Amino acid sequence: MSIGAIDRERIDWTRQPPARSGRIGVQIRVGVQIPVDMQSGEEPIAAVTRNISPDGAFVATRWPLRIGQKVALRLTIPGFSVPIVVKAEVRWVRALSAAEGALPAGAGVRFISPSIAASASIAALLQAHEMP
Known about the structure:
This protein is mainly beta. The protein has one helix at residues 116-129; strands spanning 35-40, 43-52, 56-60, 70-75, 84-94, 106-111. Helix content is 11%, strand content 33%. Strands 1-2-3-6-5-4 form a six-stranded antiparallel barrel.
């Protein structure tokens, strides 16, 4: 699906209540695994999202990231033939744990001024995964 094929009537642009208390500005967040090529400096970093919202995502990776670090994410969203690129800032990190059943290592990132195409692609993804 190309950006031109998005049915604008199906995308709900209204603000939603926060998903969890204490998370101001979170609209809709879905747990979805999307392959990510993350770029910070010279080295590309392979990762995968575990959840995504219009404002940011959790990116599972064992690569050590720093709070405040700027990264470029290349997301391959299912149903879209062209990957989207969005700049982001690392807001928090979770280290690798040796405990069985522990949460995955990675980072919470906040999108920085995503393009209209990136925002529309993420909105379409969220719309497709919205619970009835």
